Amino acid sequence: MLSLTCKASIKAVIFLGSIADRENRASIKEIALFINENEHTVGKLLQKLVKDGIINSTKGPKGGFYMTAKQIKQPVISIIHSIDGEEVFKQCGLGLSKCNDAKPCPIHNDYKPVREMFKKMCMEKRISDLYENVNKGLAYLIG
Question: Distance of alpha carbon 140 from its chain centroid, rounded?
Fold first, then answer.
């Protein structure tokens, strides 16, 4: 359902949220290392997230990427909208371009409620909800 870039974006934002209360800024290299992703990919996705106001960045020796208290309260769906767009919640479970209620794929009726529940979860969960368990050691971003 989500693109690899979107998944990496969510992991990067969770990481930034997890260090937000310490008022730390993170470099592209540090984020890429922590979430086990390619630096070039992370750099591109972070630029998009800054442009869309999901995260912030500053330049200079003490620069880097960070999140404000207001930003960590954003719903996870804001990241998905920034990277993949709303269409991700309308896509066919098998990836067929012409799947719809009138011409369903073999899993259409089973997949539709799963997709809707996933969207609901992304609307309800805040970034802070996700990184709290990472900080407590109850959830992990690499594996």
Answer: 14
